Amino acid sequence: MPKGSGLPVAVRARLPSAHFTGHISAFSRNFAGTSALLKASNALAVRNPDSPEEVELSEEALAKMTMSEVEELIDEKREELIGQAAMTEAILTELDGTEENAAEAIEIATKKLSGVLQAGSNKLVEDAQATVIATNQSLFETRASHDVFVREMSRTEGEASGLLQLQHDQIAERRLLRH
Description:
Structural class: mainly alpha
Largest sheet: none
Radius of gyration: 51 Å
Helix content: over 70%
Low-confidence stretches: 1-34, 43-48
Number of helices: 5
């Protein structure tokens, strides 16, 4: 029977795996062992419960299958199991490598992050120092401007005081002259 044989996938999935091949060959020589084949198939289904569709194989369904159909289904199941085993092995190998790579990647990332944090910290310190220097410079300039302003005010007050005194003296002189 070809791969698209019309049998439900679950029926093919429940057929015995390579583990039961020797038993099936013995039973397939004469169909008197059909119920034993059915038991083996059901035992496989119990061991392999992740079959999405559980369909019970009947003795009639097994009896209708030719030897070549049974062997083809057994071969398909064997190939599927070999593929699953290879895939599982590949995944396990990849996980082992991934675990080692992950540890290295974490270590490298930690060092990089530490470097970035240190650089960021250094940058913050530099920026803070630059801000303090700029603020001090601004305060110094403001203080210098204030000192210049105070000196100018003192000079202006002195001049104003002198002018007021001069004006006062002139007014007093005029009064004396008029009297």
